[in-house]
Amino acid sequence: MFAHNKRLQYSVHVSECNPALANLMLEQFGGPQGELAAAMRYFTQALAEDDPGRKDMLLDIATEELSHLEVIGSIVGMLNKGAKGQLAEAVDEEAELFRSLQGAGNSSHVTQVLYGGGPALTNSGGQLWTAGYIDSIGEPTADLRSNIAAEARAKIVYERLINVTADPGVKDALGFLMTREMSHQKSFEKALYAIEPNFPPGKNPGKPEFADLYANTSQGDGDMRGSWNSDDNFNFVSDREQLLAMDGGDGLATTKLSAKEKSTLKAMAKRTQSNPDLDPETGAELGMAGNGKPKPSKRPSPPSSSKRH
Amino acid sequence: MFAHNKRLQYSVHVSECNPALANLMLEQFGGPQGELAAAMRYFTQALAEDDPGRKDMLLDIATEELSHLEVIGSIVGMLNKGAKGQLAEAVDEEAELFRSLQGAGNSSHVTQVLYGGGPALTNSGGQLWTAGYIDSIGEPTADLRSNIAAEARAKIVYERLINVTADPGVKDALGFLMTREMSHQKSFEKALYAIEPNFPPGKNPGKPEFADLYANTSQGDGDMRGSWNSDDNFNFVSDREQLLAMDGGDGLATTKLSAKEKSTLKAMAKRTQSNPDLDPETGAELGMAGNGKPKPSKRPSPPSSSKRH
Amino acid sequence: MFAHNKRLQYSVHVSECNPALANLMLEQFGGPQGELAAAMRYFTQALAEDDPGRKDMLLDIATEELSHLEVIGSIVGMLNKGAKGQLAEAVDEEAELFRSLQGAGNSSHVTQVLYGGGPALTNSGGQLWTAGYIDSIGEPTADLRSNIAAEARAKIVYERLINVTADPGVKDALGFLMTREMSHQKSFEKALYAIEPNFPPGKNPGKPEFADLYANTSQGDGDMRGSWNSDDNFNFVSDREQLLAMDGGDGLATTKLSAKEKSTLKAMAKRTQSNPDLDPETGAELGMAGNGKPKPSKRPSPPSSSKRH
Amino acid sequence: MFAHNKRLQYSVHVSECNPALANLMLEQFGGPQGELAAAMRYFTQALAEDDPGRKDMLLDIATEELSHLEVIGSIVGMLNKGAKGQLAEAVDEEAELFRSLQGAGNSSHVTQVLYGGGPALTNSGGQLWTAGYIDSIGEPTADLRSNIAAEARAKIVYERLINVTADPGVKDALGFLMTREMSHQKSFEKALYAIEPNFPPGKNPGKPEFADLYANTSQGDGDMRGSWNSDDNFNFVSDREQLLAMDGGDGLATTKLSAKEKSTLKAMAKRTQSNPDLDPETGAELGMAGNGKPKPSKRPSPPSSSKRH
Amino acid sequence: MFAHNKRLQYSVHVSECNPALANLMLEQFGGPQGELAAAMRYFTQALAEDDPGRKDMLLDIATEELSHLEVIGSIVGMLNKGAKGQLAEAVDEEAELFRSLQGAGNSSHVTQVLYGGGPALTNSGGQLWTAGYIDSIGEPTADLRSNIAAEARAKIVYERLINVTADPGVKDALGFLMTREMSHQKSFEKALYAIEPNFPPGKNPGKPEFADLYANTSQGDGDMRGSWNSDDNFNFVSDREQLLAMDGGDGLATTKLSAKEKSTLKAMAKRTQSNPDLDPETGAELGMAGNGKPKPSKRPSPPSSSKRH
Amino acid sequence: MFAHNKRLQYSVHVSECNPALANLMLEQFGGPQGELAAAMRYFTQALAEDDPGRKDMLLDIATEELSHLEVIGSIVGMLNKGAKGQLAEAVDEEAELFRSLQGAGNSSHVTQVLYGGGPALTNSGGQLWTAGYIDSIGEPTADLRSNIAAEARAKIVYERLINVTADPGVKDALGFLMTREMSHQKSFEKALYAIEPNFPPGKNPGKPEFADLYANTSQGDGDMRGSWNSDDNFNFVSDREQLLAMDGGDGLATTKLSAKEKSTLKAMAKRTQSNPDLDPETGAELGMAGNGKPKPSKRPSPPSSSKRH
Questions:
Q1: pLDDT digits (tens, 9 = 90+) for A111-153
Q2: b or e along A200-229 (b: 16 or more beta carbons within 10 Å of the residue's beta carbon)?
Q3: Is the terminal CB of chain A with fewer CB neighbours within 10 Å at N or C?
């Protein structure tokens, strides 16, 4: 069960209202690398987890991410606070309010008009948050790697936001949030490696003949070798013929069909064949030159008026 | 530039048509862990990459994932081949076709009716593919971790599909595709660790006082200690007061406001206050008991007919 | 700041695993009327709220909804627990696992294969949760009405789930969750009516001449009168001419154009005119009858083989 | 059946083209509180409605909302009319057109380039309209409350648009549209309260012991009492122990498992345990310091060139 | 302005309730080829159209499509009518209702539980309708082709639905709707060819040297020649070298950089290089074998209890 | 199987970095008319296609579209190259970086902050790519028409991008891409007309009595006649009575119900009737005037402090 205390995990003291900056901050509120995505990624994993250690850790971190959602949402709220009142009370002239919306910076008109300046579950461009951002699949050696990656991405987005924020209070809180992602990444790394073995993920060992193959499918000037495709680590194959039908078969897709399926497919094929022996006139050719014949004037009334019905 | 050869990277020989199995296979065609997501994740990274080694590797693997998209899509096409003809030519009675659609298994009616049995860019439940599945952010120490995690997830989904597939030809091709994900994971691991250092991701070192903190935010029976939150590795904090306002401040969110912003906000607050000193009657209370008074019968005609206009 | 206790707000004791029922339960986990939508609706409002009473109430209820998300997610986890192990460990034959996936009921194959049986942020049909479900707009007389409506809808969906659930433990927990929605609705009603006046919402009083008009735009057999369109309460207008251009104007859409805009538009109009004086042959007509002429046999080789390149 | 008259329900006379203002107006064309959402909310309800009075009212209002969609869409079309011709005919220099796109205000480049200046079913930020905006669930005491709330929200968004619009013709038409939302809200209120009783929504009365409970889950400085949580109206509970496991049980989630389910889960648990007794080295630690050993120089050629393949 | 008459454009007389068939019918209510998509495609074009003939035609057909939306939605409502009452009044036992939901066919549980059996703006698989289905771009020679194609697709989906529908009343109404799509296609064809010329679409004639080129990018067994790539109609190029850098240039992507941009990029490249001269140990290798050292037993208490905090 | 060569199909030489222009270019990378949508439209058709000629053509063009995706993505990458380094290395002051993000033009902040300047699978407004853009349905006479229309739309969007691009290198590459769309359209036209007959699409001939009907559903000033609704080509019906219930029936929607269904529906109707004979007080009326009575002062402490809990 969750409980809440009205004090934040980190104080937010904003120097002045700035709706354009508020909009940028939405990236970590309702964006793909943001705090709701983080909280829900770990929370959904925790609910399905049977391992007591991981379950506890996932709940700890999910709960903290909710507190971070509150911090970043409070930053948005503070940066928008002045503009919110101006628009709701409409004490200024319309043209001035319009200019302030447009001049406030990219997209802030959306959050002002639609959300009244409140923090919205969108990214900084207005894209609605979607559960497609969450990649939990219920297997710990995969999910922990997803979590490690998610924390790394979130760290980078915070770093970028810090790089463009001049307000010291906002910058300070962003620094806290960014650092916590680093700490979470470390916990997830520990939990992953405490599963032995954890590679390959899952239970099925795969087909050994393809496990160390490196397929050099992009060729031409720019080919490089390194540990990721070196002969020490991989069977490096450049010959494209070798890469075709690697099962040694015909490289075709086939299926067995019943007699009825066969005859139906044959009927369909016949009905819908694009006949290679024809050179038909097409709509494009019709469209290239005027083909319309003037309409026979069945009606005695002058064309211009007869068209009006 | 891309080129294509009509032979597949792995032969697909399906034993019999099976639209329900076809639908499951869509998970790796147009699902979040599927081959289009993989190909586009690496391809978008490659286009923005300046490091020649990584660029080459990303193009190699992106290109191979497109070939995998072709293999899994061909499996779908073969499994649906018979049903496609039956529906298009409609040689059976409607009721029989309806039963075959419904009996074919979950959701196969969608792909039959809407996509005519062709492989659709949806997951196995019909959810349209979205670029929200792609988490490239243009920083290699984050993106390579995302790629490692993505390959791990894809490996697991293939393993699950193998576990429920009895058709030997489909199972064989799935085994190939699964194994290749393991190989790709290894390449991405090598490329990540060939960046020194790669942790923390990015350039900003963070605030040291929060980097090793573990916040025990979920408490109660079930708390566990392990390397992910051990005293050896973390500063483990359970005291909730300590976790509030960790900057040592007031834990509030504030912003500086101009005089005009202040007065406008005050006007808005006054206009929209929920007054705690009142105990108003509400819509719910109105709704709990009949409050409607019979309408004054202005019209002499009997009510039942007078309502018809 | 949020804190968490590992005990649930309401105990969940499931009688037996049932993946098909688990899937239905997702409706209130990741569906539009579900607990995440509720929690986020109130939480985003709370962050932007300046009125202390409403802010406190919104935080109280948002926090409780998170606890409800945990309860309903735990129900999903328990109902799927057995199936999760079966698929991951794959101790059964493929065909049997396939049958159990398909037989388990509608769509449970998606959550099994994709999410490994964990609770997913989708509705019961697999549709990904989207922030489009959240309708907070930052004005209390509108938002509180939205909250009242949202609680009413959630109450109904729980009622429907209860009606189809035979498992007594699940039914009991659903009954608790349903009742809490009723309680929340009452709080939101009180808070709305504690704003005086709260109708019309917002500050702008509107154009009085249109405020009590009822437009009888759907006519024919089935027209009815009641308090919602009665002469006592409304100015009921059935005459369609009266409903056209209610400003008393021409009912047209016009704009002033600069000379340059005018001339450019004229050029565009001329270039793209669909000429009413022509009766052109079209692609459809071409398509109705064979029009393809056999291709001149430039190549001496027989057509069937010459087509292969 | 629908019929259409080419005159608008309200005349639209725009003073001058203004693509940035056009974009703002899209909020009520293809945004969540816009006219398509309104029309479809009521229309889908009407089709499923068996009560003759409500069915008639829903059809009346749905039809009027379609006419409003036409009015707001015509505003967009008029505001974009000049820009549309300029871009299509390209009589200006590229750099000038580029500047006009960028300078025209936020996001208008999207509607210009992608939609050619026509009204698009997006909100003012370009987010595609989605049926997730529609919350009809087929129960009148819930749906009518949803409709009341939707009208309230739409009224507010129109008010905000009016506040930022200086063009008198646009302002006038927006005022009409806003006022009609107020009138619709009144009709929906009447229809709701003409159902007796209408609270609680639906048929199931809920569990009385939880119906008047107020859970004070957010505590700390800022707690407030008012009619929404007063002792007169609610059983106000602050003690967190009391809020845990309110059924009086253990607060756990459990399920009964068959012997086979148990043994499979045990096998999975063992395979995937994060062992708390280990302190493993992790990828993050590898990444903190250089760990790469120089590759053994198997090839005599100098490294820099040998890497080129 | 729109008006409505309560009689349908085509009578709907359903033989018996059938929720599974209702769900299939949603494909043309809220699916991509459905009537809402059709109505909105033409309506958005009409609003931006300046050509009087096309504007009139688009309004005629858009209005008719709304009437079709009503017909298909009424079919859904009738097919679900019985199930709706059963679920709302819950006169049956839960287990029986559960079975009827599951047995009713794929996905009907979603529409029952979430939408109460009303017609939902989803496709037959529950995917929410999105404005991404609408491809209007505001250029008539493109939009009319889009409309022609959309009518062709809608015709096919109706044909498929007819093929699986045994209910004579439903089949009859579907036949009407299907036929109307054919008629609309003919109108759009006429309007397209009444623009002279209409190919290529738009104003810019393109680069002549690439206009008749056919790039044989997919090779291998299965290459075919026909009018779509014949020497008569195209310059057929198979040589892959010829297809690279068709401008005759270097085939590279380059940009000019300022000195500052250059130095910053150099710094970034250095910081993030994947060094090809190293063969680092990776996380995958750590994960392949146990690497965790037992934790030093700082605490004397037995491990099992010491882990509980 | 796909192969890749690192040289582009067309060289990209950008004159200077320009993030705002980069963002516009995204329209054809991840937008609805962009190259990914094109490639996937043809590729999914190819996989399901049995006709050898069409399959070959679809693979040829799909493969070329992937190469175009690479070209347009490389343009984006080059235009963003300088900005990417500036943000990642953060050598400038925050305020300056913020201004450059905002000044760079609409929405470029999103791609900078979220994607690090890499090409993202979004349109130029940040909308995530969705498979809803792809309209393949597996019937060649429909799919080829869809392809013809898609090429026409893509041609127009390229034309618009060319019209606003002053950079000669970008303009040149765009011209190539645009021209290729024209060429593809011609191939699709040939393949369509090589199917004889191809109209009406599919197999079912429709109901002849409705095939040539033109329904004049939009009336009033502005009605026009042309070949698309002429008496020569259509049976033009303006009489609205004639357009109602065109089957000659009652225009109603009905279904047969079992006795149990009937009684349940009756119970539901009674429970949820909006009674037309009542004129109830509503929430709106409560909200219009103050109705709250002061709360009884149970507590002796002064109200202002007693509210704090």
A1: 889 999 999 999 999 999 999 999 999 999 999 999 999 999 9
A2: bbbbbebbeebbebbbbbbbeebbbbbbbb
A3: C
Please give the model's pTM, rounded to 2 decimal places. Answer: 0.95
Q: Which residues fall within 8 angstroms of residue F151, CB to CB, at 6 or more apart?
A: F38, F181, F182, F184, F185, F188
Q: Is residue C42 part of a domain?
A: yes
Question: Is residue D225 over pLDDT 60?
Answer: yes
Query: Distance, in angstroms, between E302 CA and closest chain C CA?
Result: 24
Beta pairing partners, A5:
D219
Q: Please, how many CA atoms are within 13 Å of residue B244, restricted to the half-sphere of its CB?
A: 17
Q: Name the minimum distance, in Å, from the CA of E55 to any CA of chain A.
A: 13
Here the ipTM equals 0.93
Residue A211: both structure tokens together: 């496990």
Q: Which domain holds residue F142?
A: 19-193
Which chains reach chain E with 3 or more Cβ–Cβ distances below 8 angstroms? A, B, C, D, F
How far is residue F261's CA from residue F258's CA, in Å, rounded to a whole number? 5
Q: Do D113 and F27 touch (CB under 8 A)?
A: yes
Q: Which two tokens stand for residue E208?
A: 């002549």
What CATH code is carried by the domain that includes residue B43?
1.20.1260.10
Encoded tokens for E282: 């990776």
Which residues in chain E are contacts of D83 at CB distance < 8 A? none
Give, to the nearest 10 degrees, the angle between helix D140-163 and helix A108-115: 130
Is some CB atom of chain D closer than 8 A to the CB atom of C20? Answer: no
| Chain C interface disruption, residue of F128, F156, F190, F193, most C CBs within 10 A | F193
Distance from CA of C267 to the nearest CA of A (A): 19
Write out chain E residues lying below 8 Å of D131, CB-based.
30, 120-122, 128-130
How is residue B234 written in tokens?
Answer: 């973390």
C-alpha dist (Å) from residue F30 to A84, A203, E128, F122, F133: 34, 37, 21, 4, 10
- Are C295 and A279 spatial neighbours (Cβ–Cβ below 8 Å)? yes
**First-last CA distance in chain B:** 70
Quote the pLDDT of residue A305.
38
E vs F: CB pairs below 8 A: 404
C-beta of residue D306 within 8 angstroms of C-beta of residue B53: no
Q: Considering only alpha carbons, which residue of chain A is nearest residue F6? A: A220
Q: In this predicted model, what pLDDT tens digit does every residue of D51-96 receive, in sequence order?
A: 999 999 999 999 999 999 999 999 999 999 999 999 999 888 988 8
Decide if E70 is inside a domain: yes
State whether A225 and D307 contact (CB < 8 Å): yes
Residue with tokens 């600069």: C258
Q: For residue D100, give the amino acid letter.
A: S
Measured CA to CA, the distance from residue F46 to residue F54 in angstroms comes to 8
Length of chain C: 309
Tokens 């194994």 sit on residue: B179
Give the amino acid at E148: I
The minimal CB distance from C192 to the residues B244, B271, B282 is found for: B282
Residue D242: which residues within 8 A CB-CB, separation 6 or more?
none
Residues of D in contact with C9 (CB under 8 A): 243-246, 251
Can you say how many angstroms the Cα of residue F138 is from the centroid of all Cα atoms in its chain?
20
Q: How large is the average pLDDT for residues A71-81?
A: 97
Beta strands E213-215 and E235-237 are parallel
Count the residues in chain F.
309
Say what percent of chain A tops pLDDT 70.
Answer: 93
Residue B233 belongs to a domain? no
How many domains does the structure of chain C reveal? 1
d(CA E99, CA B13): 37
- Whether D123 and E131 have beta carbons less than 8 Å apart is answered as no
Number of helices (H) and strands (E), helices first, in chain E?
Answer: 13, 8
Whole-angstrom distance, CA of residue E116 vs CA of residue E90: 12
User: Hey, what are F251's tokens?
Assistant: 């225009």
Residue D93 lies in a domain: yes
